[in-house]
Amino acid sequence: xxGLDGTVFAVLLSxxxxxxxxxxxxxxxxxxxxxxxxxxxxxxxxxxSQWWWAVGLNAAxxxxxxxxxxxxxxxxxxxxxxxTLVAALPLGAYCARRRxxxxxxxxxxxxxxxxxxxxxxxxxxxPGEALxxxxxxxxxxxxxxxxxxxxxxxxxxxxxxxxxxxxxxGHATASGVASGVGxxxxxxxxxxLARELPGGAPVWWQTALIAVLISGFAVGGLLLSQxxxxxxxxxxxxVVNLSNPAAAAVIGVALLGETFxxxxxxxxxxxxxxxxxxxxxxxxxxGAGAAPVPAQAPPPSPxxxxxxxxxxxxxxxxxxxxxxxxxxxxx
Length: 331
Prior knowledge:
By secondary structure, the protein is mainly alpha-helical. 71% of the residues lie in helices and 0% in strands.
Protein backbone atom coordinates (compact mmCIF):
# COMPACT_ATOMS: atom_id res chain seq x y z
CA UNK A 1 0.00 0.00 0.00
CA UNK A 2 1.55 3.28 -1.13
CA GLY A 3 1.59 6.51 0.84
CA LEU A 4 -1.60 7.99 -0.61
CA ASP A 5 -3.57 4.78 -0.26
CA GLY A 6 -2.34 4.36 3.30
CA THR A 7 -3.40 7.90 4.19
CA VAL A 8 -6.86 7.41 2.70
CA PHE A 9 -7.20 4.10 4.56
CA ALA A 10 -6.11 5.79 7.80
CA VAL A 11 -8.73 8.52 7.32
CA LEU A 12 -11.47 5.94 6.75
CA LEU A 13 -10.42 3.96 9.81
CA SER A 14 -10.32 7.15 11.89
CA UNK A 15 -13.88 7.97 10.86
CA UNK A 16 -14.95 4.41 11.70
CA UNK A 17 -13.25 4.76 15.07
CA UNK A 18 -14.99 8.08 15.80
CA UNK A 19 -18.35 6.61 14.80
CA UNK A 20 -17.82 3.57 17.02
CA UNK A 21 -16.89 5.69 20.03
CA UNK A 22 -19.84 8.01 19.39
CA UNK A 23 -22.37 5.17 19.15
CA UNK A 24 -20.94 3.61 22.31
CA UNK A 25 -21.19 6.91 24.18
CA UNK A 26 -24.82 7.39 23.11
CA UNK A 27 -25.66 3.84 24.21
CA UNK A 28 -23.96 4.38 27.57
CA UNK A 29 -25.76 7.67 28.03
CA UNK A 30 -29.16 6.11 27.42
CA UNK A 31 -28.34 3.30 29.84
CA UNK A 32 -27.25 5.86 32.44
CA UNK A 33 -30.44 7.88 32.07
CA UNK A 34 -32.51 4.74 32.61
CA UNK A 35 -30.47 3.59 35.62
CA UNK A 36 -31.78 4.25 39.11
CA UNK A 37 -28.40 3.82 40.78
CA UNK A 38 -27.97 2.33 44.22
CA UNK A 39 -27.14 -1.24 45.09
CA UNK A 40 -27.40 -3.76 42.33
CA UNK A 41 -26.95 -1.11 39.64
CA UNK A 42 -23.76 -2.71 38.33
CA UNK A 43 -25.32 -6.17 38.28
CA UNK A 44 -28.32 -4.82 36.39
CA UNK A 45 -26.00 -3.04 33.97
CA UNK A 46 -24.02 -6.19 33.23
CA UNK A 47 -27.26 -8.01 32.52
CA UNK A 48 -28.22 -5.57 29.78
CA SER A 49 -27.29 -6.56 26.23
CA GLN A 50 -27.09 -2.87 25.31
CA TRP A 51 -24.18 -2.47 27.71
CA TRP A 52 -22.21 -5.23 26.00
CA TRP A 53 -22.96 -3.63 22.63
CA ALA A 54 -21.41 -0.43 24.02
CA VAL A 55 -18.37 -2.36 25.23
CA GLY A 56 -17.99 -3.97 21.80
CA LEU A 57 -18.30 -0.60 20.05
CA ASN A 58 -15.65 0.88 22.32
CA ALA A 59 -13.33 -2.03 21.58
CA ALA A 60 -13.96 -1.73 17.84
CA UNK A 61 -13.28 2.01 17.98
CA UNK A 62 -10.01 1.44 19.82
CA UNK A 63 -8.91 -1.25 17.36
CA UNK A 64 -9.71 0.95 14.35
CA UNK A 65 -7.77 3.80 15.95
CA UNK A 66 -4.70 1.64 16.51
CA UNK A 67 -4.75 0.33 12.94
CA UNK A 68 -5.24 3.87 11.62
CA UNK A 69 -2.10 4.95 13.48
CA UNK A 70 -0.23 2.17 11.71
CA UNK A 71 -1.14 3.49 8.25
CA UNK A 72 -1.39 7.23 8.86
CA UNK A 73 0.54 9.93 10.74
CA UNK A 74 -0.41 10.85 14.29
CA UNK A 75 -1.00 14.49 13.29
CA UNK A 76 -3.83 13.29 11.02
CA UNK A 77 -5.32 10.42 13.00
CA UNK A 78 -5.56 12.09 16.41
CA UNK A 79 -7.53 15.18 15.29
CA UNK A 80 -9.94 12.96 13.35
CA UNK A 81 -10.51 10.98 16.50
CA UNK A 82 -11.81 14.17 18.11
CA UNK A 83 -14.79 14.00 15.75
CA THR A 84 -16.35 11.60 18.25
CA LEU A 85 -17.91 14.55 20.04
CA VAL A 86 -19.29 16.08 16.83
CA ALA A 87 -20.82 12.73 15.85
CA ALA A 88 -22.23 11.92 19.29
CA LEU A 89 -23.97 15.26 19.74
CA PRO A 90 -26.61 14.91 16.98
CA LEU A 91 -26.93 11.17 17.62
CA GLY A 92 -27.71 11.76 21.28
CA ALA A 93 -30.16 14.53 20.44
CA TYR A 94 -31.91 12.33 17.88
CA CYS A 95 -32.33 9.51 20.40
CA ALA A 96 -33.67 12.02 22.94
CA ARG A 97 -36.06 13.39 20.29
CA ARG A 98 -34.87 16.96 20.54
CA ARG A 99 -32.77 19.40 18.55
CA UNK A 100 -29.17 20.34 19.22
CA UNK A 101 -29.10 23.87 20.58
CA UNK A 102 -26.86 26.60 19.21
CA UNK A 103 -24.99 26.74 22.50
CA UNK A 104 -24.22 23.02 22.21
CA UNK A 105 -22.92 23.41 18.66
CA UNK A 106 -20.71 26.32 19.72
CA UNK A 107 -19.49 24.34 22.71
CA UNK A 108 -18.73 21.29 20.56
CA UNK A 109 -16.78 23.36 18.00
CA UNK A 110 -14.79 25.17 20.70
CA UNK A 111 -13.99 21.91 22.45
CA UNK A 112 -13.00 20.32 19.15
CA UNK A 113 -10.74 23.27 18.27
CA UNK A 114 -9.09 23.19 21.68
CA UNK A 115 -8.60 19.44 21.55
CA UNK A 116 -7.07 19.54 18.06
CA UNK A 117 -4.72 22.35 19.08
CA UNK A 118 -3.72 20.47 22.23
CA UNK A 119 -3.00 17.28 20.30
CA UNK A 120 -1.02 19.19 17.67
CA UNK A 121 1.57 20.34 20.20
CA UNK A 122 1.82 17.05 22.09
CA UNK A 123 3.19 13.83 20.76
CA UNK A 124 3.87 10.28 21.85
CA UNK A 125 7.10 9.18 23.39
CA UNK A 126 9.95 8.42 21.07
CA PRO A 127 10.27 4.79 19.99
CA GLY A 128 11.84 2.70 22.73
CA GLU A 129 10.88 5.08 25.54
CA ALA A 130 8.73 3.65 28.29
CA LEU A 131 8.21 3.84 32.02
CA UNK A 132 10.31 1.71 34.31
CA UNK A 133 8.50 -0.75 36.53
CA UNK A 134 9.00 1.53 39.54
CA UNK A 135 7.65 4.53 37.62
CA UNK A 136 4.69 2.51 36.38
CA UNK A 137 3.76 1.51 39.94
CA UNK A 138 4.09 5.11 41.17
CA UNK A 139 1.93 6.40 38.32
CA UNK A 140 -0.68 3.72 39.00
CA UNK A 141 -0.81 4.57 42.71
CA UNK A 142 -1.07 8.33 42.13
CA UNK A 143 -3.74 7.80 39.49
CA UNK A 144 -5.79 5.55 41.78
CA UNK A 145 -5.62 8.23 44.50
CA UNK A 146 -6.68 10.93 42.02
CA UNK A 147 -9.59 8.84 40.76
CA UNK A 148 -10.75 8.17 44.33
CA UNK A 149 -10.59 11.90 45.08
CA UNK A 150 -12.60 12.83 41.99
CA UNK A 151 -15.21 10.16 42.69
CA UNK A 152 -15.59 11.17 46.35
CA UNK A 153 -15.85 14.81 45.29
CA UNK A 154 -18.69 13.88 42.97
CA UNK A 155 -20.48 12.08 45.80
CA UNK A 156 -20.01 15.11 48.06
CA UNK A 157 -21.53 17.28 45.36
CA UNK A 158 -24.48 14.93 45.21
CA UNK A 159 -25.01 15.18 48.97
CA UNK A 160 -24.80 18.95 48.77
CA UNK A 161 -27.48 18.96 46.11
CA UNK A 162 -25.22 19.90 43.24
CA UNK A 163 -26.36 19.77 39.67
CA UNK A 164 -26.37 16.29 38.19
CA UNK A 165 -24.71 17.43 35.00
CA UNK A 166 -21.87 19.14 36.86
CA UNK A 167 -21.28 16.13 39.07
CA UNK A 168 -20.74 13.97 36.01
CA UNK A 169 -17.68 15.98 34.99
CA GLY A 170 -15.72 14.62 37.95
CA HIS A 171 -16.35 11.06 36.83
CA ALA A 172 -15.58 12.07 33.24
CA THR A 173 -12.23 13.53 34.27
CA ALA A 174 -11.40 10.39 36.21
CA SER A 175 -12.38 8.25 33.21
CA GLY A 176 -10.15 10.21 30.83
CA VAL A 177 -7.22 10.08 33.26
CA ALA A 178 -7.65 6.32 33.68
CA SER A 179 -7.64 5.84 29.90
CA GLY A 180 -4.58 8.06 29.43
CA VAL A 181 -2.63 6.25 32.12
CA GLY A 182 -3.73 2.94 30.66
CA UNK A 183 -2.23 3.99 27.31
CA UNK A 184 1.07 4.87 28.98
CA UNK A 185 1.12 1.54 30.79
CA UNK A 186 0.33 -0.26 27.53
CA UNK A 187 3.48 1.22 26.05
CA UNK A 188 5.38 -0.05 29.11
CA UNK A 189 3.85 -3.51 28.67
CA UNK A 190 4.93 -3.56 25.03
CA UNK A 191 8.50 -2.78 26.06
CA UNK A 192 8.35 -5.44 28.77
CA LEU A 193 7.17 -8.10 26.32
CA ALA A 194 9.99 -7.11 23.98
CA ARG A 195 12.41 -7.47 26.92
CA GLU A 196 13.41 -3.83 26.45
CA LEU A 197 11.95 -2.33 29.60
CA PRO A 198 14.15 0.47 31.05
CA GLY A 199 16.02 -0.81 34.06
CA GLY A 200 16.39 -4.32 32.73
CA ALA A 201 14.24 -7.16 31.49
CA PRO A 202 11.37 -7.88 33.93
CA VAL A 203 10.47 -11.27 35.31
CA TRP A 204 7.16 -12.83 34.38
CA TRP A 205 5.24 -11.65 37.44
CA GLN A 206 6.24 -8.03 36.81
CA THR A 207 4.91 -8.19 33.28
CA ALA A 208 1.73 -9.82 34.57
CA LEU A 209 1.37 -7.05 37.17
CA ILE A 210 1.53 -4.36 34.47
CA ALA A 211 -1.09 -6.24 32.44
CA VAL A 212 -3.38 -6.40 35.49
CA LEU A 213 -2.96 -2.66 36.05
CA ILE A 214 -3.84 -1.94 32.43
CA SER A 215 -6.97 -4.11 32.66
CA GLY A 216 -7.99 -2.39 35.88
CA PHE A 217 -7.65 1.10 34.43
CA ALA A 218 -9.45 0.09 31.23
CA VAL A 219 -12.43 -1.36 33.09
CA GLY A 220 -12.40 1.48 35.60
CA GLY A 221 -12.37 4.08 32.84
CA LEU A 222 -15.34 2.44 31.17
CA LEU A 223 -17.38 2.27 34.38
CA LEU A 224 -16.45 5.85 35.31
CA SER A 225 -17.62 7.10 31.93
CA GLN A 226 -20.87 5.19 32.46
CA UNK A 227 -21.36 7.04 35.76
CA UNK A 228 -20.44 10.35 34.12
CA UNK A 229 -23.16 10.02 31.49
CA UNK A 230 -25.83 10.22 34.19
CA UNK A 231 -25.27 13.97 33.97
CA UNK A 232 -25.74 14.13 30.20
CA UNK A 233 -23.78 13.16 27.12
CA UNK A 234 -21.93 16.03 25.43
CA UNK A 235 -20.12 17.67 28.33
CA UNK A 236 -18.87 14.41 29.96
CA UNK A 237 -17.76 13.08 26.56
CA UNK A 238 -15.85 16.30 25.89
CA VAL A 239 -14.10 16.09 29.27
CA VAL A 240 -13.18 12.43 28.69
CA ASN A 241 -11.64 13.31 25.31
CA LEU A 242 -9.70 16.22 26.84
CA SER A 243 -8.41 14.61 30.02
CA ASN A 244 -7.12 11.54 28.15
CA PRO A 245 -4.37 13.29 26.11
CA ALA A 246 -3.75 15.70 29.00
CA ALA A 247 -2.89 12.81 31.34
CA ALA A 248 -0.66 11.23 28.71
CA ALA A 249 1.10 14.57 28.15
CA VAL A 250 1.75 15.01 31.88
CA ILE A 251 3.33 11.55 32.08
CA GLY A 252 5.43 12.22 28.98
CA VAL A 253 6.72 15.59 30.22
CA ALA A 254 7.27 14.51 33.83
CA LEU A 255 8.78 11.04 33.34
CA LEU A 256 9.79 10.50 29.71
CA GLY A 257 11.66 13.74 29.07
CA GLU A 258 9.18 14.98 26.48
CA THR A 259 8.25 18.59 25.90
CA PHE A 260 5.65 20.42 23.90
CA UNK A 261 6.49 20.96 20.27
CA UNK A 262 7.79 24.41 19.28
CA UNK A 263 9.28 24.96 22.72
CA UNK A 264 7.85 27.90 24.66
CA UNK A 265 5.31 28.57 21.91
CA UNK A 266 4.06 25.04 22.33
CA UNK A 267 3.36 25.69 26.01
CA UNK A 268 1.46 28.85 25.11
CA UNK A 269 -0.57 27.04 22.46
CA UNK A 270 -1.37 24.26 24.94
CA UNK A 271 -2.51 26.79 27.57
CA UNK A 272 -4.67 28.67 25.06
CA UNK A 273 -6.12 25.42 23.74
CA UNK A 274 -7.03 24.35 27.26
CA UNK A 275 -8.87 27.62 27.87
CA UNK A 276 -10.77 27.34 24.57
CA UNK A 277 -11.71 23.75 25.31
CA UNK A 278 -12.78 24.66 28.86
CA UNK A 279 -15.07 27.33 27.44
CA UNK A 280 -16.55 24.74 25.11
CA UNK A 281 -17.22 22.38 28.00
CA UNK A 282 -18.98 25.17 29.90
CA UNK A 283 -21.24 25.80 26.92
CA UNK A 284 -21.96 22.10 26.59
CA UNK A 285 -22.76 21.90 30.30
CA UNK A 286 -25.12 24.87 30.40
CA GLY A 287 -26.53 24.81 26.87
CA ALA A 288 -28.12 21.38 26.69
CA GLY A 289 -31.59 21.61 25.24
CA ALA A 290 -34.29 21.04 27.73
CA ALA A 291 -37.26 18.92 26.97
CA PRO A 292 -39.99 20.99 25.41
CA VAL A 293 -42.64 22.09 27.89
CA PRO A 294 -46.13 21.16 26.77
CA ALA A 295 -48.23 24.20 26.03
CA GLN A 296 -50.94 24.84 28.55
CA ALA A 297 -54.48 25.23 27.36
CA PRO A 298 -55.49 28.91 27.36
CA PRO A 299 -58.15 29.88 29.90
CA PRO A 300 -61.66 30.10 28.52
CA SER A 301 -62.32 33.55 27.17
CA PRO A 302 -65.09 35.39 29.01
CA UNK A 303 -68.25 36.15 27.20
CA UNK A 304 -68.53 39.60 25.69
CA UNK A 305 -71.38 40.49 28.07
CA UNK A 306 -69.30 39.70 31.17
CA UNK A 307 -66.18 41.43 29.81
CA UNK A 308 -68.11 44.63 29.23
CA UNK A 309 -68.80 44.97 32.91
CA UNK A 310 -72.58 45.32 32.43
CA UNK A 311 -74.95 43.06 34.32
CA UNK A 312 -76.55 40.32 32.41
CA UNK A 313 -80.06 41.21 31.36
CA UNK A 314 -82.85 39.26 32.88
CA UNK A 315 -83.92 36.43 30.66
CA UNK A 316 -86.98 36.99 28.62
CA UNK A 317 -89.67 34.80 30.07
CA UNK A 318 -92.94 34.07 28.40
CA UNK A 319 -95.24 34.93 31.27
CA UNK A 320 -98.15 33.23 29.61
CA UNK A 321 -96.27 30.02 29.31
CA UNK A 322 -94.68 30.33 32.69
CA UNK A 323 -97.83 31.24 34.67
CA UNK A 324 -99.49 28.28 36.28
CA UNK A 325 -102.80 27.31 34.88
CA UNK A 326 -105.76 28.72 36.86
CA UNK A 327 -108.36 26.12 37.61
CA UNK A 328 -111.78 26.89 36.24
CA UNK A 329 -114.49 27.84 38.77
CA UNK A 330 -117.45 25.72 38.43
CA UNK A 331 -120.61 27.44 39.33
